[in-house]
Amino acid sequence: MVSEPFEDLLRQLAPQVLGALVRRYRQFDACEDAVQEALLAATRQWPADGVPERPRAWLTTVAVRVLVDHWRSDSARRRREVTVALDPTHQPSAGEPDDTLVLLFLCCHPALSPPSQLALTLRAVGGLSTAQIAAAFLVPEATMTQRIRRAKQRIREAGARFETPTPAERAGRLAVVLHVLYLLFNEGYTNFTRVDLATEAIRLTRLLHRLVPFETEVAGLLALMLLTNARRAARTDVDGSLVPLADQCRDRWDRAAVAEGQRLLTRILGTGPVGQYQIQAAIAALHDEAPTAADTDWLQILALYDVLVQVAPGPMVTLSRAVAVAMVHGPAAGLGVLGTLAADDRLSHSHRLEAVRAHLLELAGEPGAARESYLNAARMTASLPEQRYLTHRAALLR
Fold this sequence. Notes:
Layout: H1 7-25, H2 28-49, H3 55-73, H4 79-86, H5 100-107, H6 114-124, H7 130-137, H8 141-157, H9 167-190, H10 195-211, H11 216-229, H12 255-268, H13 276-289, H14 298-311, H15 315-329, H16 331-339, H17 352-363, H18 367-380, H19 384-395
C-alpha cells in the first residue's frame, strides 16, 4: 500500500484521516476507498516533492477531492454531499481529534462476521495492504478484496454510526477488538521490518485501556505487549541475525516497559475472571524476571500453559506448551506433545512446528533429524533473519 520511505508516517496517518472523513461524511465505504487513493497518491508524489508541511491535511484534502469526484460522477443524487464537501468550513484542520479508537470499534460491528471484522480492521486501522491481509488469512488476494468490499457494504447497510460505542456495544465487541489488536501486535513483533505495527498496537491498546480501565483482559493484553516488546532490541545482533530468547543479552531489554507490564499485572490479577491475555502476560513476566535463561521458572510457566490450554486451546498454545514440557520433563516429553499436532492442518504451512521440533530433537541428541527439521523450517519461512538462523543451526549439526 505504501512505499518504504514513508511507510511509518502513512500508516500512522491513515486511520486518523479515515476517522476524520467518516465522522464528517458518514460513509465508511466511500471514505475508506478515498483514503486508499490518497495514500497511493502520496507514494507517487512525496518521493519527488518531499513530505508536505502538514501531511495529514494533505492526505485529507486529496481524499476529499476523491470523494467529490465520486459524488459528481453520481450526479444529482449526490449534489448535497458535494456542496458540503466544497464548503470551506469543512476543509482539513490540524486540530481534529484522533478517531482511531472509534474507527476500531466500527470495524468490529456485529453485522460483520469475525473474519470480516478482523480483515477490515487490519486494513482500515492497522494499515496492512489487502495482499498482506490475504497472506495472513492464507487466502488469495482476490478473495480478500471481495471480503473487505462486502464488509464495507454490510456496515453501510447496517446504518452503523461513527460514534463512541455505548458500554453495551463495547462489551459486545470487546473480544474481537482485543483479538485484532493482538494480531496486529504479533504481525509487527514477528516481522522484523514491521516495527510500526507493534508500536501502533500498543498505542491503540493504551487508548482502549483508558476507555475501559477496569476491563482486566484489556490491561492483560497491554501488559503482554509491553513485556514482550521490551525484548525487541535484543532479538537481533549487530549484523541482523536472529537471537533466540535463551541467548539474548538481557541488559538490552527495556526495563521500564517490563516494570510497567508488571505493575499492570499486579493490579489486575485476582480482581476478575482470568483470561488468555492475562495468562500470556504472566508467562512473559516470568521470562522477563529471570536474571538469566537458566534461572527461568519453567515449572510455573508450564503450570500457566496448562491453564491456558483450558482457557484458550489452540495449536500455537500447544506448541509453546511443548517447549515448557521439554524444559521440565525432558525433550522426549516435549516431542510427545508435538506429536499431537502432526495432523493439525492449521500448522501445515507454518515453519514454527518444524523449528520447535528441530530444537527439541537437538536437545534429545538426534542431530541428523534435528538438522533435517531445521532445514525444513528454513524453507517454510519467508523471514530472512529466521531463514539465516535456522540454516545456521542446521549447519552446526553437520
